[in-house]
From TrEMBL:
Top-level taxonomic group: Bacteria
Protein name as annotated: Laminin G domain-containing protein
Short name of one Pfam family: Laminin_G_3
Length: 308
């Protein structure tokens, strides 16, 4: 599966992620990738948890081609515009950390730091909205990918890691929401962490996305016919045992997170000559393996190596 993204047309595109109490935390961080040419004097909202004029909540926007952000808690807070022009039609990683200070990182580099003027935070039941500034109809025009929400102030090592396109670790205990935008199910973007999926309106899923790392394996064959098949494994204390009863043609993210992974869709395919690249739909995390079944009298595979 290739990395994908959402395209917001700046007219009527939006997505709504319902409020959950675990989003009312302090400190917190948000992260996303954007690609846009939008450059006007409006606060065009990329993602927010804020209703216009409420003075309670936060909003990540683009204004004059730069990141703008504000956060308020019962009228106390801050708002500002960053320094780096990002309306260049290139992918940029944006990370906001909120504590006693608010920091904006663009592609892993600190862009601006200001005092937050708050020491707690609560948005009550305001939903998270992508692409629309609630109450004023100022909309984002551009691409959005890999949006995540964290209940911690991300440190420099994590910021450096994810700004370089390393896949987000879904097992991180501080990660409370992750929408990778790689697929739509029932008109929803999928939350890989809490299953708090977002409902979309007039949004298009684009077949290319931000420069996120995907793993693939190269099987070097010995110029004879053989068949490969993805297998799902569950760890035990001594060995990995094949899972039975998992339908390989109906794999869910839950299966992938618990048992293993799928390949690019060629679950069972005969290879004649050359190389086969298997691109996994989810991270190949610790404790997960794949099996290669050899048929047609094949004696060996010359080598298997991980490609970055």
């Amino acid at each position: 599966m290739a990395n994908k993204s959402l395209y917001f047309n700046g007219k009527d595109s939006e997505a709504i992620i319902k409020h959950k109490d675990f989003y009312n935390v302090f400190p917190f961080s948000i992260q996303c990738w954007i690609k846009t040419t939008q450059n006007n004097n409006n606060h065009s909202s990329i993602v927010n948890k804020y209703i216009s004029g409420s003075r309670n909540g936060w909003s990540l926007n683009i204004k004059n081609g730069k990141i703008s952000f504000w956060i308020y808690n019962n009228n106390n807070g801050c708002e500002f515009i960053g320094n780096t022009l990002i309306s260049d039609n290139e992918w940029h990683n944006v990370i906001i950390t909120v504590s006693n200070t608010v920091k904006v990182y663009i592609d892993g580099v600190l862009d601006i730091e200001v005092s937050s003027n708050i020491n707690s935070y609560n948005t009550n039941s305001i939903d998270i909205v992508l692409g629309l500034y609630q109450g004023s109809h100022e909309r984002y025009n551009g691409f959005l990918d890999d949006f995540s929400f964290w209940n911690i102030e991300l440190d420099n090592s994590i910021i450096a890691k994810y700004s370089k396109g390393i896949r987000i670790d879904k097992n991180n205990n501080f990660l409370t929401g992750y929408w990778n935008m790689d697929k739509l199910v029932d008109n929803q973007i999928i939350d890989c962490i809490k299953k708090n999926n977002g409902t979309i309106k007039n949004l298009e899923l684009i077949s290319y996305g931000c420069p996120i790392e995907y793993y693939k394996f190269l099987l070097q064959q010995n110029n004879q016919l053989y068949t490969i098949k993805s297998e799902f494994y569950e760890p035990s204390k001594s060995q990995y045992k094949p899972i039975t009863g998992v339908e390989v043609n109906n794999i869910t993210d839950e299966n992938l997170n618990k048992y293993g992974f799928d390949d690019i869709g060629d679950i069972l395919k005969t290879i004649d000559k050359g190389n086969l690249n298997m691109l996994f739909t989810n991270d190949l995390e610790d404790g997960k393996q794949f099996g290669v079944n050899l048929k047609n009298g094949i004696k060996k595979i010359d080598g298997i190596r991980l490609l970055k």
